[in-house]
Amino acid sequence: MNYEAVARAVTAIAHRTGRDHHRLAVVLGSGLSGYAATLPGAIEVPYTEIPGFPVPGVAGHAGSLFSAEYDGAGVLVLAGRVHLYEGWEMDDLVLAVRTAVASGCSTVILTNAAGGAGDSTAPGDLVLIRDHINLTGRNPLFGPNDDRLGPRFPDMSTVYQQQLRDRARRIAATVQVPLGEGVYAWFPGPSYETPAEVQMAKRLGADLVGMSTVPEAIAVRHMGGQVLGISLVTNFAAGLSETPLSHEEVTATANACRDQITRLLGALIPELAADAGGETGAAAT
Ligand code: 8IG
Q: 20 to 30 Å CA-CA from 227: which of 58, 110, 158, 276?
């Protein structure tokens, strides 16, 4: 990965937001970008104005970075992400989260909309990601390793730290938002799975199926950041219900759950921003 590309984006964000340090980053997934509009006093920087940032092309994925402050702690909210199925390179998929970690964000919350494959998952559920399975055969760390970002062979035994999940569940309880827990399987998309593929993922241990998040989680762990993963289940995975899958169903469920998501993120962001030290986010400038 091009370390200089990360450093350029870090500099641009510091310049445009007037904050040279942020502590917590939140990536808003499909249908969840609307949350950014609720941020108090946030400064918006369109991705088009951040050097190197890929601009999402899919409906339901916005493309702006927001910088807000909670008790003096800077928070970066990334509304919109790009996906493998759009034809982007791995470096593009992870540039935003790498920039966030290099800007000082020692914790990154990755959110997504996902299909539910688990026996007890249903549309509308919010689920903490306990672990992931990479079914794409791709990895954002392919290519020469830049030791300034992280090690060649990073450990992935605790990508989504239990301590952070426990903390998130306690915070969510204070705003009456129940959180499930499950394993997320990363499929390349853009076609949804066949029923046989969903059965395969289930047997491998997956409860959630989706097309994002995993490359970002790997890139954040590579740099020593902490990851909290949250899936909003927007549909039963293929073959688990009678209804055919559609992007419209996904968007409709995300809209119906807006209230819950707003309450959850509204509680998590200030608390986790206060927890997050700057110590793992090595400045790239
Ligand atoms: I939203 O059922 C959403 N994203 N792979 N499968 C996959 N990705 C998804 C799904 C799903 N629902």
A: 58
